[in-house]
Specification:
This protein has about 450 residues and is an alpha+beta fold. It is built from ten helices and four strands, in the order αααββαααααββαα. The protein has a single domain, classed as Outer membrane efflux proteins (OEP) (Up-down Bundle), CATH 1.20.1600.10. Helix 2 packs antiparallel against helix 4 and helix 3 runs antiparallel to helix 4.
């Protein structure tokens, strides 16, 4: 019985993956397990670390995933219960009256009965064991689903936190440029009062001030909504983190490089791939459950007890009864139901295999996207640093020439506008560098660690 199980045995899927990554790869060795599991600590931002650790403890999606693990564990227990016998205690009382002789009523009869019934289905063909195997695979899939939830959660908290600090930096840049533009507008009004420039310069300066000022409320809205997002991720009401996160802080910078290892490591690291593999295992085992219906079901049953017409007679050993014997049932004709169910389970296994391959390809794409984005954003940031420096010099020179009456005011406006644009773009690029690093850690499956 221990060795006989109908249906196919599960074989881990063999999906070819490239030997190396296409994108630019840092030359560092593979990251330690702990660094990948707790990647946020590498940003050296205590607030970020605190937010992620609190989210892991209180996020509602994680709690749902943990509840599903408990459900799967209970379902496995139900399936495993089919391997052993069942024992039921029984008791009954019946009062009856039948017809008597010559049309008279018969005597009233009381009957008491108490005993035990036992049954044990002998799993000769392994249908029950395949069901336990499928339930165990479902449990493993639920565990991996929780891990995948943690990967997504930690990255979402990280991305939202970086967005918040970037919005705060953009607000500071807008206010700094607004102050400079207001100073220029004041200068223009003084020159206009003295008759050195036209009223047109004044209106252009005022328009520039108003345009820059209009950006600040939009950024403040985005910043506050991001705090709301973080609160929800921590399982809190939207405004719970306003006091904690409203004070301005810099955009957290990640490590200069993220060692990514080789593509084959994704198959062992990413929880969504591990979950897809467990789902294949469950689907394969359920083929065996379906195939077992083609064979007879053999059971042992037994019952024992006492009965009598008085309650006190239940204790009289002479009133005992018992029965013991095997039984077998075999479905000889079911209008194709059993074989159709086998075909259904085979198709479900095929679907799970396709889903696994799609999951692997999506994982490879996510890593490649993160690698190329991270590398190119570094180039983008360097160009913006140079552009911002040049624009600052241009603003100073244009203002000096305009004050001396040696250039048109439009040059001042253009220089100030370009400076604000380049500084704002630089802040967004710094944010993108950090978010690309978070995306790369997520694509590598960072954010969970093995139990024990």
């Amino acid at each position: 019985m221990a060795g006989c199980k109908v249906g196919p045995n599960f074989q881990p899927p063999q999906t070819p993956v490239p030997a190396t990554w296409v994108g630019p790869i840092p030359p560092e060795p593979a990251p330690p397990e702990q660094d990948l599991a707790r990647w946020w600590t590498l940003f050296n931002d205590p607030t970020l670390t605190s937010l992620i650790e609190r989210a892991m403890a209180s996020n509602l999606d994680v709690q749902v995933a943990e509840a599903r693990i408990r459900q799967a564990r209970a379902a496995r227990g139900i399936a495993a219960g089919g391997l052993g016998p069942t024992l039921n205690a029984t008791g009954s009382f019946r009062r009856s009256q039948g017809p008597g002789p010559a049309g008279t009523a018969g005597p009233i009869v009381n009957q008491y009965q108490a005993g035990f019934d036992a049954a044990w289905e002998l799993d000769f063909f392994g249908g029950v064991r395949r069901n336990v195997e499928a339930a165990q695979a479902d449990l493993q899939a639920a565990i991996e689903a929780r891990r995948d939830t943690l990967v997504t959660l930690t990255s979402e908290v990280g991305l939202n936190y970086i967005d918040l600090r970037a919005f705060q930096e953009q607000i500071a840049i807008a206010r700094r440029n607004l102050t400079a533009q207001q100073h220029t507008a004041d200068l223009t009004r003084q020159l206009s009062t003295g008759g050195f420039v036209s009223r047109l310069d004044v209106e252009n300066a005022n328009a520039q001030v108003a345009t820059t000022a209009a950006q600040i409320p939009v950024l403040e809205t985005s910043a506050q909504q991001t705090i709301y997002n973080l609160s929800i991720l921590l399982g809190l009401e939207p405004g719970a983190l306003l006091q904690e996160l409203t004070p301005v802080s810099g955009i957290p910078a990640g490590p200069p490089a993220v060692p990514v290892g080789v593509p084959a490591e994704l198959l062992r690291r990413r929880p969504d791939i591990r979950q897809a593999e467990a789902q294949i295992h469950a689907a394969t085992a359920r083929i065996g459950v379906a195939v077992a219906d083609l064979f007879p079901s053999i059971s042992l049953s037994a019952s024992a007890g006492t009965q009598g017409n008085k309650f006190s007679s239940l204790t009289d050993w002479a009133n005992r009864f018992w029965s013991l014997g095997p039984s077998a049932t075999w479905t000889l004709f079911s209008t194709g139901r059993v074989r159709s169910n086998i075909e259904l389970q085979r198709a479900l296994e095929e679907e799970s295999m396709i889903t696994y391959r799609k999951t692997v390809l999506a994982a490879l794409q996510e890593v490649e996207n993160a690698l190329i984005a991270s590398a190119k954003e570094q180039e983008h940031r360097q160009a913006l640093v140079e552009a911002a420096a040049a624009n600052r010099a241009a603003v100073d020179l244009a203002t000096e020439l305009y004050t001396a009456g040696q250039t048109d005011f439009l040059n001042v406006l253009q220089a100030q506008r370009s400076l604000y644009t380049s500084e704002d773009a630089l802040a967004q690029s710094i944010r993108a560098i950090s978010t690309d690093i978070v995306a790369l850690y997520k694509a590598l499956g960072g954010g969970w660690q093995r139990d024990g």
